[in-house]
Write a structure and sequence with these properties.
861 residues, mainly alpha, two-stranded antiparallel sheet, 26 helices
């Protein structure tokens, strides 16, 4: 008879060999891959930075030509933002959040693996383009019109330089597609983290007992869900301009380059705090351990984290002070830019208080935290300065802004990342890093950062603009640039020391043991590295630092409701963990998690095939065939992904719910799938909101249109009739009617009426198909073409958004209808159709927004 631990090991073991490695879905495997891959990109971005500093060390150098320099600084910024900082911190969260909250895995393990593969493929695409001389060259912010087809066409002349072949313009397409894929990966990770922290916390870990790193990861995930769809939307809009000839950003056709800036910076400034907050959470964790006491002002720090997340969305015009926005409008954003220093200051003072009141043990991780406080405060001071519009006008696009930004990122992200690595790598690997090499790494990095970027403040005051590849000797900028270059190589040496230390650790590092730092959170209660199942027994939590403040985390008879089975065993050899309530983390059910599979990889391949159609590879007409190929592969993978296994279908309600066990939660707000659908709808709603914002922004920009034979002012422009109401109203009416059978079907199956669900789904599909046909007739009968002007571009895109969603509903509903016909769904197992109904309601609500925006408002004002 095997022991409970042996059964857990068997249930959670990873498949052997290369196929087993590719099919891994365990959160720790995925987290390590995120961390390792992001560090590779970090090294590449660092090399690009050093090459740029070599070029700028003295005036008039020609080591890196202009074309190459443009690609270097674009790639450096894009890689550090999209391929290193955010993925690394998400990987840290994916690895440690389940350990900190006492879970065995994340809510959607296969989706987790899918996100990683999308991230890895997107980053690879970007670097393959760069190494082939087709890297992006319009800055990581990618402003139109420079990034538009007029100035950066997809096929341009080739420039040969001493560093190789560089093609100007073609890299923009690779950038847009790669960034869109990377945002998909980030959104997947965000949904994973939110649902996991909502539903998989150990019993007793109420929200006010979650570790601060989990709080920061949770707020960051919410920010990603609100911010990153804006970047995805505007990236797709620019690619449509480049590939299909739409005119969202073409001023001559009624578009606006400032539309890109608004949507980009709505993502871009929160993105800074998306990087900062999890890094702050890591610092809060390390400082508490180094001071050997709970974090001072826990509640205030958690509230400050939430406040930073909210206020960060009111700062995006902070980057647009010089574009001509009215002073009254600028004053609001200036106030928000200064207000955000308050919660940031609360966090920093809490760190200082914890250090002051604790019994301090200085190690490498703590040194990086101390460096964080110094460098980030300096960056914050200059941040308050550039928050003032009148000051910003003087230093805008100068090296002063470069200095400010890097002080914030190095102090608020890079140094905390190193602190997290020195603190948590022993848990990941089971081996200790060297303290002496770690301290050398810190001092080289800390001194190098200040030597590099402090002189840049003066360079900015002296008038050195950003993003220039050389300068004249008469400008007197050579000495400070040389000092900055020396500092950059010091930072590079610090990074090299870390990687040498990491290699030494894997080779002959000392065993870390269970808890080398005397930590207070749950990740230090299990072996290093943790077993595949994390916890042999799900812990019971009664404090914020359970390893410091309670005698035991073992479940006791008086801590678990009578008759509820403890998870000290693996039920029927399956992967299980607790589901708990949102606020107080009371046990409410069992989650059954899927085994490793290759499906996430093939799903990522399918998505890549679709995106590849937009890359300048062979020829546009040839590349378009990839879209249907990718969609078919994606649909097949999705059906296999969601199709239930027959033994699972029979045993889910009967065998799995033996007397005395926790129920298997499958429906309603207790389900992880329900929460996952909620956040998918929120993401889609943000996309719709961005498109609707674009519609009204372009509309109010109409007076600035040039009056000529091609484009005339007005909305719709003269020559284009007002949008007709009849066919869109019929199509929308059919979709509104389709809600009735869908709602009735879900209600019926929840009451045990299986057959009614089948007929209800058929009715809903029929009405949706009717709506799709009417919409198609309407769009094909329009008296204009998609690319005629900005009005036709945005109206057609909004209509396409609705049509694609109706088509998606039909495709999703078809296999569910087949399952309903076979009698799969019943009163205890209908979460699939429940999730479909939620998405159906959203699509209908989105149609209402679309109809009012496009067909009603032009006749109102």
């Amino acid at each position: 008879m095997s022991t409970p631990t042996e059964r857990l090991t068997e249930a959670w073991k990873r498949p052997p060999g290369f196929v087993g490695w590719m099919s891994a879905t365990n959160h720790r495997a995925v987290g390590v891959r995120y961390i390792a891959t992001s560090l590779v990109f970090f090294v590449l971005a660092g090399i690009l930075a050093l090459l740029m500093r070599i070029q700028l060390a003295q005036p008039g150098l020609d080591i890196v030509p202009a074309e190459a320099f443009n690609q270097f600084f674009t790639m450096h910024g894009a890689v550090m933002m999209f391929l290193f900082a955010i993925p690394f911190l998400e990987g840290l969260g994916i690895y440690f959040v389940p350990l900190m909250i006492g879970a065995r895995d994340m809510a959607f393990p296969r989706l987790n693996a899918f996100g990683y593969w999308i991230y890895a493929i997107g980053g690879t695409i970007l670097f393959l383009a760069f190494f082939s001389g087709r890297g992006p060259d319009a800055g990581w912010f990618n402003y139109p019109p420079l990034s538009g087809a007029g100035y950066s066409p997809s096929a341009t002349d080739v420039s040969m330089t001493g560093l190789g072949e560089f093609q100007v313009g073609r890299g923009i397409d690779f950038y847009l597609i790669a960034v869109t894929m990377l945002e998909v990966a980030a959104l997947v990770a965000a949904v994973e983290l939110i649902v996991t922290m909502f539903k998989f916390r150990a019993p007793g870990m109420s929200l006010n007992r979650m570790p601060l790193f989990c709080w920061s990861s949770l707020v960051t995930a919410f920010m990603i869900i609100i911010a990153m769809p804006a970047l995805m939307t505007v990236s797709v809009m620019l690619e449509l301009d480049r590939k299909f000839g739409t005119t969202f950003f073409d001023h001559a056709a009624g578009g606006s380059a400032l539309l890109w800036q608004h949507l980009f910076w709505f993502f871009g400034h929160p993105d800074v705090y998306i990087m900062l907050l999890p890094a702050f959470g890591a610092v809060s964790t390390v400082i508490a351990v180094a001071a050997a006491r709970p974090m001072s002002g826990y509640l205030l720090v958690a509230m400050a984290t939430v406040a930073i997340g909210i206020l960060s969305f009111g700062l995006w015009v902070h980057h647009m002070y010089a574009v001509g926005i009215a002073l009254m409008g600028l004053s609001f954003f200036a106030a928000a830019s200064m207000m955000i220093t308050i919660p940031s200051g609360i966090t920093i003072f809490a760190w200082i208080s914890t250090i002051w009141r604790g019994t301090l043990k200085i190690n490498t991780a703590f040194l990086f935290c101390a460096g964080t406080i110094v460098v980030f405060v300096l960056g914050g001071i200059t941040g308050v300065m550039v928050a003032s519009p009148v000051f910003d006008w003087q230093v805008h696009d100068t090296y002063f802004v470069v200095a400010h930004f890097h002080y914030v990122i190095i102090g608020g992200v890079i140094l905390p990342i190193f602190a997290g690595l020195y603190h948590w790598l022993p848990k990941i690997t089971g081996k200790l890093l060297s303290e002496s090499l770690g301290r050398l790494c810190f001092w080289l990095t800390f001194i190098g950062a200040n030597v590099t970027f402090f002189p840049m403040h003066q360079l900015g005051f002296d008038g050195m603009p950003r993003r220039v590849y050389t300068y004249l000797p008469e400008q007197g900028l050579g000495d400070l640039n040389f000092i900055a270059t020396v500092g950059a190589f010091m930072m590079g040496a610090g990074a090299l020391v870390f990687f040498v230390d990491a290699a030494r650790m894997f080779w002959k590092g000392k065993p870390a043991g269970l808890d080398p730092w005397n930590g207070g959170t749950l990740e230090w209660a299990i072996p290093s590295p943790p077993p595949d199942y994390n916890f042999a027994t799900i812990p019971i939590v009664r404090s914020r630092y359970p390893l410091w403040q309670q005698e035991s985390t073992e479940p006791a008879a008086d801590r678990v409701p009578e008759g509820w089975r403890s998870f000290s065993d693996s039920l029927n050899g399956e992967r299980t963990t607790y589901q708990t309530t949102l606020l107080e983390a009371k046990p409410e059910g069992r989650a059954f998690l899927p085994a490793p599979t290759l499906l996430p990889f093939w799903m990522a391949v399918a998505v890549t095939v679709i995106f590849a159609a937009f890359l300048p590879l062979v020829g546009f007409d040839t590349e378009l065939i990839l879209i249907p190929v990718g969609l078919i592969l994606l649909y097949i993978c999705a059906i296999i992904w969601n199709w239930p296994e027959e033994p699972f279908a029979r045993s889910e309600v009967t065998d799995r719910e033996s007397p005395g066990s926790l129920p298997h939660i499958t429906t309603g707000r207790f389900s992880t799938i329900w929460w996952g659908m909620i956040w998918l709808i929120v993401i889609e709603a943000v996309v719709l909101g961005c498109l609707t914002f674009a519609y009204f922004y372009l509309r109010i920009s109409v007076p600035s249109w040039p009056v000529d034979d091609a484009v005339l002012p007005g909305w719709p422009p003269e020559g284009i009739p007002d949008p007709p109401l009849m066919l869109p109203a019929i199509a929308g009416g059919l979709m509104l009617l389709s809600v009735v059978p869908i709602w009735w079907g879900v209600r019926s199956v929840s009451q045990g009426n299986r057959s009614m669900l089948f007929y209800s789904l058929l009715g809903g599909i029929g009405l949706a198909i009717g709506s799709l046909i009417v919409s198609t007739i309407h769009y094909t009968d329009r008296p204009f073409i998609w690319t005629e002007n900005a009005y036709t571009s945005i109206v057609t895109t909004l209509g396409g958004f609705h049509v694609l969603h109706v088509a998606a509903l039909i495709l999703i509903a078809v296999p569910m209808t087949l399952l309903a016909w076979r009698g799969y769904y019943d009163e205890k197992r209908f979460i699939g159709v429940q999730a479909l109904s939620m998405y159906w309601y959203f699509v209908v609500a989105a149609w209402v927004v679309y109809f009012v925006t496009v067909y009603i408002t032009p006749n109102m004002f």
